[in-house]
Every structure is written in C-alpha cells, then in structure tokens.
Write a structure and sequence with these properties.
This protein is about 25% helix and about 40% strand. It has a seven-stranded antiparallel sheet. The protein is built from three helices and seven strands, in the order βααββββββα. A hairpin with a 7-residue loop joins strand 2 and strand 3. Helix 1 packs across helix 3. The chain has a single domain, classed as 2-Layer Sandwich (Alpha-D-Glucose-1,6-Bisphosphate, Chain A, domain 4). It is of the alpha+beta class.
C-alpha cells in the first residue's frame, strides 16, 4: 500500500486556496493531463468527478472548505487522492496532498516520480492562489 504525502504553505487564505481546488476550470492549470470536465451532481460526498476519458471518480469525503478525497477504481486497483487545508496563521494556509494505492505497487522509480508530480501540483496551486487567480477568466489578466 504505497502512501505519499506532500505539503506546502501558501500565502493565501483557506478560502482562496479552496477556490482553486473546487473551480474545475482552474484544474487545467494545476492538474494538466488530467482533464476534469464536470462534477456530477456537485462537490459533495458521493458526487462524481467526470474526466475527459468518461470514467468517473467518486468523491468519498467532502468538508468545505478544508478537505476532499476522491477514489478511482481501475482493474481492481483503488487509488485515493485527497487535499487537506489547514490555517497556518492570518492569510496563510498549509495544503496537504495525499495519495494511497491499494492493490498495486509502484514500478521502480514510480514512487519518486509521483512524489515529484505531487510537489509540482502543489507549487502550481500555490502560484494560482497567491496571485489571486482562482477563476478561469483571471488567467488572462
């Protein structure tokens, strides 16, 4: 059961970071390659993240504005990803990104690559939130 957890501190409020996480238009800026098309019916437990591939992921846990987790099932392998937000101080937020895989292991070098990808994801979220660009129309300012 590989587990990876990465975190960083963002100089933005929990609410601003949360906006980056739940605005599906901003996902293409911080989660490129994973084309999230919609959330059906809504951001809530039991909701579905519908990807461009058509295969949905299930939102297992959702607590606005601090936590959500989703699960993918593929060929008997369960993949859980989550984002958790914690207030550090006035205007700063710690974001924790967690990955748990059940039913498989990483190939050689795969765990290090996944960790690097997760760190890069948090860096992109930090850049968006600190610039205040959390909605799609703000990216062209």
């Amino acid at each position: 059961m590989p587990d990876i957890e990465v975190s960083t501190t963002i100089n933005a409020s929990v609410e601003k970071v949360w906006e980056c996480l739940i605005d599906i238009e901003s996902w293409r800026h911080w989660w490129p390659g994973h084309k999230l098309q919609k959330v059906d019916p809504a951001w809530q437990e039991g909701g579905k993240l519908v990807w461009k591939t058509g295969r949905p992921s299930t939102i297992n846990s959702f607590t606005s504005p601090t936590y959500f987790q989703w699960m993918d099932m593929n060929m008997g392998i369960e993949i859980y990803r989550s984002f958790r937000l914690e207030v550090v101080d006035q205007g700063s937020t710690k974001i924790i990104h967690d990955l748990k895989i059940i039913g498989a292991s990483f190939p050689p070098g795969g765990e290090a690559q996944e960790r690097n990808d997760m760190v890069a994801t948090l860096s992109k979220i930090r850049n968006l939130a600190e610039k205040g660009q959390t909605k799609w129309w703000e990216f062209w300012k």
